[in-house]
Design goal:
Elements lengths: L1 H11 L5 H20 L5 H8 L3 H17 L1 H11 L1 H19 L5 H17 L3 H11 L4 H18 L1 H11 L1 H22 L27 H15 L3 H16 L1 H13 L5 H26 L4 H18 L7 H13 L5 H12 L1 H33 L3 H17 L17
């Protein structure tokens, strides 16, 4: 395989193949996140073409967010059984097929089936759990940094494609715009097929930062074991207060990001006379600062108390959301919002992953974080529908913004309920 030759070539130059796997994972999560984020350009075109209400479209897209989150724990189990490469390949094919099939839809139920179910499951299979799994398997050192990089690709991909897609939608229609997302997904699929490997031991390598090659653990073969292992992990984790604090705070994270701003930002700005392309440009700016903030968060999570990092991240995000309704939605105010909110978009993920691994152990970290991430997407789905219903009922998004900001401040206070661990293992750092 190409990966064997490339691994040998890199090893001769003292470069670990884990960075190639991280790069392919970055591209995969970027492509699938771009497909997720492209839903933001659909609301107004679908309203105009089919006469569907904002609430109807938001309901369909909320189904996608729910499945995106609920499938995460089972995606981790599938990766343990079938391998990362196979699961990522199937997911990319599902997402591309769902988008292509949606070009011919004419009814709301078809939007629910394709964008809700098919794309929801496909993106759920390559959600943040994929990044957490790759980081845990391939990296012993620099794990927090890698989680930050892969998390940034997921969040940034949902934002940086929007200016291009909004512009193409305006000029050529939403079907032509989404064809770009399909093309990126197919490029990612090719990279996965050629370069992705499941574990370092497949290439005879130790994880980055380790010296010994870890043996491949036995994969569960019974279907019942595959399906019940996430449920057992949920049962055990749900008996602890730490799980519920992380679950609730991540629910707030999803409510205040994917479900509200990502999904409705173009419509929020449209209510104040901001053109879709201009609103998408602000989202792209948020994405740029998110890339910086999330990678920095990963670096910080390796060095500082993750509870206090989350306290500041949620608190500052809440203040930025409460600030937004008091602006005139001018370029200066929106740019200022983009900087502060962007730095904090998903900076909460690396500290949350680290706390989950610290409290539940490395073997179960992926499954437990999958359920915590499900809380994130349930929050996102709640905001996606609630904000749409608020806009339909009151002709304004402002109540949704105030509620999201208040919830963030509550999450900041709640995270301090987690006690400091009695002892912490230092993360090995190679020279």
């Amino acid at each position: 395989m190409i990966s064997n030759r490339l691994a040998a070539w890199l090893s001769a130059r003292d470069i670990h193949y884990g960075w190639v796997v991280a790069g392919v994972t970055f591209l995969t999560m970027l492509a699938t996140a771009g497909a997720m984020g492209s839903a933001g350009v659909l609301i107004q075109p679908l309203e105009q073409e089919f006469g569907w209400t904002t609430a109807e479209i938001s309901m369909a897209l909320a189904v996608r967010l729910v499945l995106f989150g609920l499938f995460g724990p089972f995606a981790a189990a599938f990766m343990n059984r079938f391998g990362v490469r196979q699961v990522a390949s199937v997911a990319l094919l599902m997402i591309a097929s769902g988008i292509l099939a949606s070009f011919a839809m004419t009814e709301v139920w078809q939007l629910v089936a394709l964008w809700g179910v098919v794309i929801g499951i496909g993106t759920g299979m390559t959600a943040l759990v994929l990044g957490a799994t790759v980081a845990a398997r391939w990296f012993s050192a620099r794990r927090g940094l890698v989680v930050g990089m892969l998390t940034a690709s997921n969040a940034t991909g949902q934002l940086v494609f929007l200016p291009l897609l909004a512009s193409l939608t305006q000029m050529y229609g939403w079907r032509s715009a989404l064809s770009v997302s399909v093309a990126v997904l197919l490029v990612a699929l090719l990279a996965v097929l050629l370069l992705m490997r499941d574990r370092p031991s497949d290439l005879g390598l130790p994880a980055y930062g380790d010296r010994a090659v870890a043996q491949r653990p036995p994969a569960p073969r019974a279907l019942i074991t595959l399906l019940t292992s996430p449920l057992i992990a949920l049962r055990d984790a749900s008996r602890t207060s730490v799980f519920w604090v992380l679950f609730f705070t991540f629910w707030v994270c999803g409510f205040s990001t994917n479900g509200l701003i990502q999904m409705h930002w173009i419509s929020i700005c449209g209510d104040f006379g901001v053109a879709p392309v201009g609103a998408a440009g602000i989202l792209a700016l948020i994405g740029v600062f998110d890339l910086v903030g999330t990678i920095a968060s990963g670096w910080l999570s390796d060095r500082f108390d993750n509870r206090w990092l989350l306290f500041w991240f949620y608190g500052l995000r809440g203040l930025s959301l409460i600030y937004l309704p008091f602006t005139n939605f001018g370029i200066y105010e929106l740019s200022l919002f983009a900087v502060f909110y962007g730095l904090d978009w998903v900076a909460t993920v690396p500290p949350t992953v680290k706390l989950a691994a610290e409290r539940f152990g490395p073997e179960r970290a992926g499954l437990v974080f999958g359920w915590i991430f499900a809380g994130h997407q349930l929050g996102a789905a709640s905001a996606a529908y609630f904000a749409g219903a608020t806009r339909t009922g009151f002709e304004t998004y402002m109540p949704a913004l105030f509620i999201a900001g208040t919830l963030c401040l509550m999450a900041a206070a709640m995270i301090l309920l987690i006690s400091r661990p009695a002892s912490r293992q230092a993360v090995p750092q190679p020279a």
